[in-house]
Amino acid sequence: MGIFSSLFGKRELIFEMFAEDFDIVGESYYQQNLTKITGGKTEESAEFHCEAKLVPEKNNPHDSNAVKITINGLQVGHLSRDDAADYRDWFGSVKAKCDSVIVGGWDRGNRGAGHFGVKLDIDWPPKLIK
Q1: Cβ distance 92 to 56 under 8 Å?
Q2: Which one, 22, 88, 105, 109, has the greatest CB density within 10 A?
Q3: What is the rounded distance in angstroms from the CA atom of residue 119 to the CA atom of residue 109?
C-alpha cells in the first residue's frame, strides 16, 4: 500500500501501528457516542478494538489546529492542543486513520461505574506505512 490511500476521493494517511498508548482528550463530552459504538457498559471494562479517523478541523472556533477523532462516523474526542499542533505541522489538513481501542465503561451497580476512554494505536511522531 502506498503512503496515501483514497477514502471518498480524499487523501488519507495510514499510520504504522505500535502500542495502544496514545491518549486523546475530551472523551467525557462524547460518552453517548462511545456507548453507542461499544453497545453499552458492562460489569467488566471494555476493550473494544476499532479504527479511528483523525480529521483536521481548520474552522474549529477554539483551536485552528484542532484534530477531531471519529470512530464509526461519530466524534469521540480530539488530539490534545500540543499533539494537534504537531500533527498539523507534519501533515497539514490531511486526514489519517489508525487502529484504536475503547477502554473503560464498566458498570458494577452499587460499586460504581466508569467512563469510556480512547487510546490510539500510534507512536508520535507517526510513521507512514510504505
Answers
A1: yes
A2: 105
A3: 25
